[in-house]
């Protein structure tokens, strides 16, 4: 990527990660240009955050689309208008078409609330508590067609404390996401982190594990 990458953020919900990204852009710590925010639901609070920041807030409505393929086409058309270099998934709750994922291979990131490869999918806090895990966290990873399976760049790890609930754990992990996601995006935007041969390379070194940040 040459210069600050044109970036589109895909959202479905509150958009606290989007906010963290926008805040870091404003502070100058993150050198990307967010050219649009796209939601699959018009009611997503994330869209208000985008509008407040003066960024085009767009909806490709999943329910109105009526089928996966109509939605996929609508999303592809909207993205074609925005011409992003980088796609950032921030609480986007839809599975993307393989075609789109392949098109953005090495240029699409996601943050997932678990220490991947543990607990891909939903309800990660509950599952980690029920499994009696000693720690939990979040992972920023490159997106590949298999769900939550792309190689990790940066991971935030929190110890599970006695008395932790889904809510308390979510709050602590979410705070960590806000720290690691902008940082990982900055690494990719600057060409420091890249996806090569199915692995993450950071500053020319192949990572066997994501870089870990402890709470
Ligand atoms: C985050 O916990 C993220 O890990 C998951 O969805 C949540 C989005 O939260 N993929 P927000 O919309 O950024 O507040």
Can you put this structure into words, describing what you see?
By secondary structure, the chain is of the alpha/beta class. The chain is built from seven helices and eleven strands. The chain has helices at 16-27, 45-52, 62-65, 68-82, 98-103, 124-130, 166-189; strands spanning 6-11, 33-39, 57-59, 86-89, 108-112, 135-142, 152-159, 193-196, 199-202, 205-206, 211-214. The strands form two sheets. It has an eight-stranded mixed sheet, sandwiched between helices. A three-stranded antiparallel sheet has the order 8-9-10. Strand 1, helix 1 (16-27) and strand 2 (33-39) form a beta-alpha-beta unit. Helix 1 crosses helix 7 (166-189). It is globular and about 50 Å long. 5-O-phosphono-beta-D-ribofuranosylamine is lined by residues 13-18, 46, 90-91, 111-113, 138, 174, 177.
Contiguous low-pLDDT stretches (5 residues minimum) are none
* Overall body shape: globular
Q: In percent terms, what proportion of residues is strand?
A: 25-35%
Overall number of strands: 11
Quick one: biggest sheet? 8 strands, mixed
Distance between the termini: 31 Å
Count of helices?
A: 7
Question: Which structural class do you get from the secondary structure elements?
Answer: alpha/beta
What ions, cofactors and ligands are bound? 5-O-phosphono-beta-D-ribofuranosylamine
Element-level helix/strand string: EHEHEHHEHEHEEHEEEE
């Amino acid at each position: 990527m040459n210069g600050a990458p044109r970036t589109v953020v895909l959202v479905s919900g509150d958009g606290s990660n989007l906010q963290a990204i926008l805040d870091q852009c404003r502070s100058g710590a993150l050198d990307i240009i967010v050219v649009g925010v796209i939601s699959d639901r018009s009611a997503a609070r994330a869209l208000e955050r985008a509008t407040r920041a003066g960024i085009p807030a767009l909806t490709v409505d999943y329910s109105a689309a009526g089928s996966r393929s109509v939605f996929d086409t609508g999303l592809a058309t909207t993205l074609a208008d925005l011409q992003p270099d980088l796609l950032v998934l921030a609480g986007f709750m839809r599975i993307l078409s393989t075609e789109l994922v392949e098109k953005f291979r090495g240029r699409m990131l996601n943050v997932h609330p678990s220490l991947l490869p543990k607990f891909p999918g939903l309800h990660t806090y509950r599952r980690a508590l029920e499994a009696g895990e000693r720690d939990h966290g979040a992972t920023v990873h490159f997106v590949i067609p298999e769900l939550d399976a792309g190689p990790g760049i940066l991971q935030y790890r929190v110890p599970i404390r006695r008395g932790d609930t889904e809510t308390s754990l979510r709050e602590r992990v979410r705070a960590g996401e806000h720290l690691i996601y902008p940082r990982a995006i900055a690494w990719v935007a600057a060409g420091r982190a890249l996806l090569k041969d199915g692995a993450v390379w950071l500053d020319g070194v192949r990572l066997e594990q994501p870089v870990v940040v402890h709470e």
